[in-house]
């Protein structure tokens, strides 16, 4: 499987034009697309250009606008998650944003 980028280690930068050699459910090897195509010339090649290949079970979603809340003191004591949303997050963060800010 080859893609535009391969993310394989949180301590390493994403690798451009890398691929993953897979047999069944096992990863055999990672490396450059060119290198793996040479090592496994008979293998079925899945071209995933335009995509990023990343390990499974990666939750890549984020709330980037959450950084806007840093340093804003809560208006009331936070008792639980719902009070946090109701009394702080929705009023002081989300309701204060407009389309241009996002």
Radius of gyration: 22 Å
* Approximate helicity band: 10-25%
Query: What is the overall pLDDT average?
Result: 89
Number of strands: 5
Per the principal axes of the C-alpha atoms, what is the gross shape? elongated
Task: Tell me the number of structural domains.
Answer: 2
Spatial strand order of the main sheet: 2-1-5
Strand % is 25-35%
Distance between the termini: 35 Å
Unreliable segments (pLDDT under 50, ≥5 consecutive)?
A: none
Structural class: alpha+beta
The ordered H/E elements are EEEEHEH
Q: What about the largest sheet?
A: 3 strands, mixed
What's the total helix number? 2
GO molecular function: hydrolase activity, acting on carbon-nitrogen (but not peptide) bonds; metal ion binding
Pfam family, one: HUTI_composite_bact
Protein name: Aminodeoxyfutalosine deaminase/Imidazolonepropionase-like composite domain-containing protein
InterPro entries: Metal-dep_hydrolase_composite, MQNX/HUTI_composite_N
